[in-house]
Amino acid sequence: MRAKVLVLIKGLGIGGAERLISEAPPFWDRERFDYRVAYLLPWKDQLVPELRAAGVEVDQIGDGKLGPATFAAVRSHLASLNPDIVHAHLPSTGILARLTSRAPVIYTEHNVVSSYRQPTRLINRITYGRNSRLIAVSQAVADSVRGYPGPDPLVIPNGVSVSVGPDERIAARQELGIDDDKVLIAHVGNIRPHKGHSNLIKAVAAMKGSGARDFLVVSIGGEKHEGDLERIRSEAAAAGIEDAFVALGRREDALSFVGAADLMANPSDHEGLPLAILEAMSLGKPVVATSVGGVPSVIEDRANGLLVPPREPEALAAGLTELIDDTDLRERLGKQAQEDAVARHGLGPMVKEVERVYEDVLAESS
Protein backbone atom coordinates (compact mmCIF):
# COMPACT_ATOMS: atom_id res chain seq x y z
CA MET A 1 0.00 0.00 0.00
CA ARG A 2 1.27 3.46 -0.88
CA ALA A 3 2.07 5.83 1.96
CA LYS A 4 -0.12 8.94 1.99
CA VAL A 5 1.87 12.17 1.84
CA LEU A 6 0.12 15.51 2.28
CA VAL A 7 2.17 18.45 1.03
CA LEU A 8 0.93 21.55 2.85
CA ILE A 9 1.78 25.15 1.97
CA LYS A 10 0.33 28.59 2.61
CA GLY A 11 -0.44 29.38 -1.02
CA LEU A 12 0.17 28.15 -4.54
CA GLY A 13 0.99 31.48 -6.13
CA ILE A 14 4.11 31.96 -8.20
CA GLY A 15 7.04 31.79 -5.80
CA GLY A 16 10.13 29.71 -5.22
CA ALA A 17 8.86 27.30 -2.57
CA GLU A 18 5.56 26.98 -4.40
CA ARG A 19 7.21 26.12 -7.72
CA LEU A 20 9.33 23.45 -6.07
CA ILE A 21 6.01 21.73 -5.36
CA SER A 22 4.32 22.36 -8.70
CA GLU A 23 7.34 21.16 -10.71
CA ALA A 24 8.03 18.07 -8.59
CA PRO A 25 5.28 15.61 -9.71
CA PRO A 26 7.21 14.19 -12.71
CA PHE A 27 9.92 13.13 -10.25
CA TRP A 28 7.70 11.78 -7.45
CA ASP A 29 7.73 8.03 -6.84
CA ARG A 30 4.00 7.52 -7.11
CA GLU A 31 4.29 3.76 -6.85
CA ARG A 32 5.59 4.23 -3.30
CA PHE A 33 3.84 7.46 -2.26
CA ASP A 34 0.28 8.73 -2.69
CA TYR A 35 0.76 12.50 -2.90
CA ARG A 36 -1.86 15.17 -2.26
CA VAL A 37 -1.37 18.90 -1.96
CA ALA A 38 -3.28 21.42 0.16
CA TYR A 39 -3.00 25.18 0.51
CA LEU A 40 -4.63 27.86 2.65
CA LEU A 41 -4.96 31.14 0.70
CA PRO A 42 -7.70 30.83 -1.95
CA TRP A 43 -6.44 33.77 -4.01
CA LYS A 44 -2.96 32.29 -4.34
CA ASP A 45 -3.88 29.52 -6.75
CA GLN A 46 -1.95 30.22 -9.96
CA LEU A 47 -0.08 26.89 -9.80
CA VAL A 48 -3.12 24.73 -9.01
CA PRO A 49 -3.95 23.95 -12.68
CA GLU A 50 -0.37 22.77 -13.27
CA LEU A 51 -0.59 20.34 -10.37
CA ARG A 52 -4.02 19.04 -11.36
CA ALA A 53 -2.83 18.58 -14.95
CA ALA A 54 -0.12 16.33 -13.50
CA GLY A 55 -2.81 14.21 -11.86
CA VAL A 56 -2.34 15.56 -8.33
CA GLU A 57 -5.34 16.13 -6.06
CA VAL A 58 -5.24 19.67 -4.67
CA ASP A 59 -7.45 21.08 -1.89
CA GLN A 60 -7.88 24.60 -0.58
CA ILE A 61 -8.45 24.64 3.19
CA GLY A 62 -9.95 27.31 5.42
CA ASP A 63 -11.16 30.87 4.97
CA GLY A 64 -7.79 32.35 4.04
CA LYS A 65 -7.42 34.29 7.29
CA LEU A 66 -5.01 31.98 9.14
CA GLY A 67 -7.21 32.24 12.24
CA PRO A 68 -9.32 29.80 14.29
CA ALA A 69 -11.51 28.81 11.34
CA THR A 70 -8.51 27.79 9.26
CA PHE A 71 -6.97 26.02 12.25
CA ALA A 72 -10.16 23.96 12.64
CA ALA A 73 -10.35 23.34 8.89
CA VAL A 74 -6.77 22.04 8.74
CA ARG A 75 -7.40 19.76 11.71
CA SER A 76 -10.57 18.42 10.09
CA HIS A 77 -8.87 17.93 6.73
CA LEU A 78 -6.03 15.98 8.31
CA ALA A 79 -8.43 13.83 10.30
CA SER A 80 -10.44 12.94 7.18
CA LEU A 81 -7.41 12.33 4.96
CA ASN A 82 -5.42 10.48 7.65
CA PRO A 83 -2.04 10.93 5.95
CA ASP A 84 1.04 8.96 6.94
CA ILE A 85 3.23 12.07 6.59
CA VAL A 86 2.56 15.79 6.46
CA HIS A 87 5.25 17.74 4.66
CA ALA A 88 4.79 21.43 5.48
CA HIS A 89 6.52 24.37 3.82
CA LEU A 90 6.93 27.91 5.22
CA PRO A 91 6.23 28.99 8.82
CA SER A 92 2.46 29.49 8.97
CA THR A 93 1.64 26.06 7.56
CA GLY A 94 4.47 24.52 9.54
CA ILE A 95 2.96 25.88 12.74
CA LEU A 96 -0.54 24.67 11.82
CA ALA A 97 0.72 21.21 10.87
CA ARG A 98 2.64 20.78 14.12
CA LEU A 99 -0.39 21.80 16.20
CA THR A 100 -2.99 19.71 14.35
CA SER A 101 -1.36 16.64 12.81
CA ARG A 102 -1.34 13.20 14.40
CA ALA A 103 0.97 12.06 11.59
CA PRO A 104 4.70 12.86 11.62
CA VAL A 105 5.45 16.37 10.36
CA ILE A 106 8.38 17.02 8.05
CA TYR A 107 9.06 20.72 7.73
CA THR A 108 11.15 22.50 5.10
CA GLU A 109 12.66 25.82 6.17
CA HIS A 110 13.15 27.94 3.05
CA ASN A 111 14.58 31.12 4.58
CA VAL A 112 17.00 32.22 7.24
CA VAL A 113 14.72 32.71 10.23
CA SER A 114 15.90 36.28 10.85
CA SER A 115 13.95 37.26 7.72
CA TYR A 116 10.62 36.47 9.42
CA ARG A 117 8.63 38.94 11.47
CA GLN A 118 9.18 38.58 15.20
CA PRO A 119 5.76 37.03 16.05
CA THR A 120 6.16 34.46 13.26
CA ARG A 121 9.70 33.68 14.36
CA LEU A 122 8.61 33.20 17.98
CA ILE A 123 5.69 30.84 17.31
CA ASN A 124 7.70 28.97 14.71
CA ARG A 125 10.44 28.34 17.28
CA ILE A 126 8.08 27.41 20.10
CA THR A 127 6.46 24.67 17.99
CA TYR A 128 9.68 23.41 16.34
CA GLY A 129 10.01 20.53 18.76
CA ARG A 130 7.04 18.82 17.11
CA ASN A 131 8.87 18.39 13.80
CA SER A 132 9.76 14.77 13.07
CA ARG A 133 12.33 15.95 10.56
CA LEU A 134 13.61 19.39 9.59
CA ILE A 135 14.90 20.08 6.08
CA ALA A 136 16.89 23.26 5.41
CA VAL A 137 17.44 24.42 1.82
CA SER A 138 20.99 25.63 2.53
CA GLN A 139 23.64 25.49 5.22
CA ALA A 140 22.96 29.14 6.03
CA VAL A 141 19.30 28.29 6.70
CA ALA A 142 20.35 25.32 8.83
CA ASP A 143 22.74 27.50 10.83
CA SER A 144 19.96 30.02 11.47
CA VAL A 145 17.90 27.42 13.38
CA ARG A 146 20.73 25.97 15.46
CA GLY A 147 19.55 25.83 19.05
CA TYR A 148 15.90 25.44 18.09
CA PRO A 149 14.10 22.51 19.73
CA GLY A 150 13.51 19.34 17.77
CA PRO A 151 15.65 17.41 15.30
CA ASP A 152 18.85 18.73 13.79
CA PRO A 153 18.35 20.17 10.30
CA LEU A 154 19.10 18.10 7.22
CA VAL A 155 20.46 20.23 4.39
CA ILE A 156 18.82 19.36 1.07
CA PRO A 157 19.49 22.16 -1.42
CA ASN A 158 16.78 23.22 -3.83
CA GLY A 159 16.74 21.69 -7.30
CA VAL A 160 15.52 22.86 -10.69
CA SER A 161 14.43 21.39 -14.00
CA VAL A 162 13.93 24.14 -16.58
CA SER A 163 14.21 24.86 -20.26
CA VAL A 164 13.36 27.84 -22.45
CA GLY A 165 12.93 27.47 -26.21
CA PRO A 166 14.20 29.94 -28.80
CA ASP A 167 10.68 31.13 -29.64
CA GLU A 168 10.08 32.05 -26.00
CA ARG A 169 13.34 34.00 -25.85
CA ILE A 170 12.50 35.87 -29.04
CA ALA A 171 8.98 36.67 -27.83
CA ALA A 172 10.29 38.03 -24.52
CA ARG A 173 12.73 40.40 -26.23
CA GLN A 174 10.08 41.48 -28.72
CA GLU A 175 7.68 42.30 -25.88
CA LEU A 176 10.36 44.47 -24.32
CA GLY A 177 11.09 46.11 -27.67
CA ILE A 178 14.80 45.34 -27.68
CA ASP A 179 17.12 43.64 -30.15
CA ASP A 180 20.08 41.39 -29.50
CA ASP A 181 22.51 44.32 -29.29
CA LYS A 182 21.02 45.60 -26.03
CA VAL A 183 22.16 43.79 -22.89
CA LEU A 184 19.16 42.43 -20.99
CA ILE A 185 19.44 41.93 -17.23
CA ALA A 186 16.72 39.86 -15.56
CA HIS A 187 15.58 40.12 -11.96
CA VAL A 188 12.99 37.72 -10.55
CA GLY A 189 11.62 38.24 -7.06
CA ASN A 190 8.22 38.94 -5.55
CA ILE A 191 7.93 42.45 -4.16
CA ARG A 192 8.88 42.07 -0.50
CA PRO A 193 10.97 44.39 1.73
CA HIS A 194 13.95 42.00 1.81
CA LYS A 195 14.05 41.28 -1.94
CA GLY A 196 16.12 44.38 -2.66
CA HIS A 197 14.08 46.19 -5.31
CA SER A 198 15.20 49.59 -4.04
CA ASN A 199 18.80 48.37 -4.00
CA LEU A 200 18.45 47.37 -7.65
CA ILE A 201 16.84 50.66 -8.65
CA LYS A 202 19.67 52.62 -7.03
CA ALA A 203 22.20 50.40 -8.77
CA VAL A 204 20.57 51.02 -12.16
CA ALA A 205 20.63 54.77 -11.50
CA ALA A 206 24.34 54.54 -10.66
CA MET A 207 24.98 52.60 -13.87
CA LYS A 208 23.21 55.18 -15.96
CA GLY A 209 25.07 57.94 -14.19
CA SER A 210 28.40 56.33 -15.01
CA GLY A 211 27.56 55.96 -18.68
CA ALA A 212 27.28 52.17 -18.76
CA ARG A 213 26.72 50.56 -22.14
CA ASP A 214 23.14 50.33 -23.40
CA PHE A 215 21.17 47.90 -21.20
CA LEU A 216 17.70 47.15 -19.87
CA VAL A 217 16.72 45.62 -16.53
CA VAL A 218 13.44 43.68 -16.44
CA SER A 219 12.10 42.97 -12.95
CA ILE A 220 9.44 40.30 -12.51
CA GLY A 221 7.55 39.55 -9.32
CA GLY A 222 4.12 39.76 -7.77
CA GLU A 223 2.76 42.11 -5.14
CA LYS A 224 2.22 41.16 -1.52
CA HIS A 225 0.03 44.23 -1.01
CA GLU A 226 -1.98 46.15 -3.56
CA GLY A 227 0.04 49.10 -4.81
CA ASP A 228 3.46 47.47 -4.36
CA LEU A 229 4.11 47.30 -8.09
CA GLU A 230 3.10 50.91 -8.66
CA ARG A 231 5.35 51.96 -5.80
CA ILE A 232 8.35 50.25 -7.44
CA ARG A 233 7.53 51.84 -10.79
CA SER A 234 7.20 55.27 -9.15
CA GLU A 235 10.53 54.79 -7.38
CA ALA A 236 12.18 53.99 -10.72
CA ALA A 237 10.59 57.03 -12.33
CA ALA A 238 11.79 59.28 -9.50
CA ALA A 239 15.31 57.90 -10.04
CA GLY A 240 15.10 58.82 -13.74
CA ILE A 241 15.62 55.27 -15.02
CA GLU A 242 12.33 54.58 -16.79
CA ASP A 243 14.20 53.88 -20.03
CA ALA A 244 16.47 51.31 -18.33
CA PHE A 245 14.16 49.57 -15.83
CA VAL A 246 10.87 47.79 -16.51
CA ALA A 247 8.79 46.18 -13.74
CA LEU A 248 6.33 43.67 -15.19
CA GLY A 249 4.74 42.38 -11.99
CA ARG A 250 3.70 38.74 -11.68
CA ARG A 251 4.25 36.73 -14.84
CA GLU A 252 3.71 33.03 -15.32
CA ASP A 253 6.24 33.18 -18.16
CA ALA A 254 8.96 34.76 -16.01
CA LEU A 255 11.40 32.08 -17.08
CA SER A 256 11.13 33.22 -20.70
CA PHE A 257 12.64 36.56 -19.73
CA VAL A 258 15.44 34.85 -17.82
CA GLY A 259 16.13 32.72 -20.88
CA ALA A 260 16.17 35.83 -23.06
CA ALA A 261 18.50 37.72 -20.72
CA ASP A 262 22.28 38.03 -20.91
CA LEU A 263 22.71 37.98 -17.16
CA MET A 264 20.75 38.09 -13.94
CA ALA A 265 20.71 40.28 -10.84
CA ASN A 266 19.74 39.18 -7.36
CA PRO A 267 19.83 42.21 -5.01
CA SER A 268 18.22 40.66 -1.89
CA ASP A 269 18.98 41.49 1.74
CA HIS A 270 18.03 37.96 2.94
CA GLU A 271 17.80 34.63 1.13
CA GLY A 272 17.51 30.93 1.87
CA LEU A 273 18.48 29.44 -1.48
CA PRO A 274 16.70 31.31 -4.30
CA LEU A 275 15.18 29.11 -6.97
CA ALA A 276 15.49 32.00 -9.44
CA ILE A 277 19.29 31.94 -9.14
CA LEU A 278 19.45 28.19 -9.75
CA GLU A 279 17.15 28.51 -12.75
CA ALA A 280 19.25 31.29 -14.25
CA MET A 281 22.41 29.25 -13.71
CA SER A 282 20.88 26.16 -15.31
CA LEU A 283 20.05 28.30 -18.36
CA GLY A 284 23.66 29.45 -18.61
CA LYS A 285 23.13 32.95 -17.26
CA PRO A 286 25.79 34.45 -14.98
CA VAL A 287 24.33 35.96 -11.82
CA VAL A 288 25.44 39.07 -9.93
CA ALA A 289 24.06 38.47 -6.44
CA THR A 290 24.33 39.80 -2.94
CA SER A 291 26.32 37.51 -0.69
CA VAL A 292 23.52 36.58 1.71
CA GLY A 293 22.03 33.39 3.15
CA GLY A 294 22.62 30.33 1.01
CA VAL A 295 23.68 32.28 -2.09
CA PRO A 296 27.45 31.77 -1.54
CA SER A 297 26.84 28.02 -1.38
CA VAL A 298 25.96 28.02 -5.09
CA ILE A 299 27.73 31.10 -6.48
CA GLU A 300 31.50 31.15 -6.21
CA ASP A 301 32.74 34.67 -6.85
CA ARG A 302 34.41 34.97 -10.25
CA ALA A 303 34.12 31.23 -10.86
CA ASN A 304 30.43 30.93 -11.86
CA GLY A 305 29.05 34.39 -11.01
CA LEU A 306 29.78 37.55 -9.04
CA LEU A 307 29.07 38.19 -5.36
CA VAL A 308 28.61 41.69 -3.93
CA PRO A 309 27.77 42.96 -0.44
CA PRO A 310 24.07 43.45 0.41
CA ARG A 311 22.54 46.94 0.57
CA GLU A 312 25.42 48.45 -1.41
CA PRO A 313 23.95 49.59 -4.74
CA GLU A 314 27.30 50.95 -5.97
CA ALA A 315 28.85 47.49 -5.59
CA LEU A 316 25.90 45.88 -7.35
CA ALA A 317 26.18 48.45 -10.14
CA ALA A 318 29.90 47.73 -10.52
CA GLY A 319 29.32 44.00 -10.81
CA LEU A 320 26.55 44.38 -13.37
CA THR A 321 28.57 46.89 -15.39
CA GLU A 322 31.57 44.57 -15.45
CA LEU A 323 29.51 41.77 -16.98
CA ILE A 324 27.85 44.15 -19.43
CA ASP A 325 31.25 45.30 -20.70
CA ASP A 326 33.20 42.03 -20.55
CA THR A 327 31.45 39.54 -22.82
CA ASP A 328 34.22 36.95 -22.46
CA LEU A 329 33.86 36.95 -18.69
CA ARG A 330 30.08 36.82 -19.04
CA GLU A 331 30.25 33.79 -21.29
CA ARG A 332 32.80 32.00 -19.11
CA LEU A 333 30.83 32.52 -15.91
CA GLY A 334 27.57 31.55 -17.61
CA LYS A 335 29.02 28.30 -18.95
CA GLN A 336 30.42 27.34 -15.56
CA ALA A 337 27.16 28.32 -13.84
CA GLN A 338 25.24 25.97 -16.11
CA GLU A 339 27.66 23.09 -15.52
CA ASP A 340 27.45 23.57 -11.76
CA ALA A 341 23.65 23.82 -11.68
CA VAL A 342 23.19 20.68 -13.77
CA ALA A 343 25.71 18.72 -11.71
CA ARG A 344 24.56 19.78 -8.24
CA HIS A 345 21.02 21.09 -8.37
CA GLY A 346 18.76 18.83 -10.40
CA LEU A 347 15.15 18.64 -9.21
CA GLY A 348 15.04 14.86 -9.63
CA PRO A 349 17.92 14.16 -7.22
CA MET A 350 16.46 16.67 -4.73
CA VAL A 351 13.10 14.86 -4.75
CA LYS A 352 14.82 11.52 -4.21
CA GLU A 353 16.65 12.88 -1.16
CA VAL A 354 13.37 14.14 0.29
CA GLU A 355 11.70 10.79 -0.34
CA ARG A 356 14.53 9.07 1.53
CA VAL A 357 13.58 11.25 4.50
CA TYR A 358 9.99 10.04 4.11
CA GLU A 359 11.21 6.43 4.14
CA ASP A 360 13.17 7.01 7.35
CA VAL A 361 10.19 8.58 9.10
CA LEU A 362 7.85 5.82 7.97
CA ALA A 363 10.27 3.18 9.19
CA GLU A 364 10.36 4.82 12.62
CA SER A 365 6.59 5.07 12.90
CA SER A 366 5.80 1.55 11.69
Described by its quaternary structure, the protein is: single chain
CATH topology of the largest domain: Rossmann fold
- Using the alpha-carbon principal axes, give the shape: globular
* CATH homologous superfamily annotation of the largest domain: Glycogen Phosphorylase B
Tell me the major beta sheet: 7 strands, parallel
Low-confidence stretches: none
Broad structural category: alpha/beta
Strand content: 15-25%
Number of domains: 2
Instruction: Report the top-level CATH class of the largest domain.
Output: Alpha Beta
Order of helices and strands: EHEHEHEHEHEHEHEHEHEHEHEEHHH
Rg (C-alpha, Å): 21 Å
Arithmetic mean pLDDT? 95
Q: Tell me how many strands there are.
A: 13
Per CATH, the architecture of the largest domain is 3-Layer(aba) Sandwich
Strand order of the biggest β-sheet: 3-2-1-4-5-6-7
* Helical content class: 40-55%
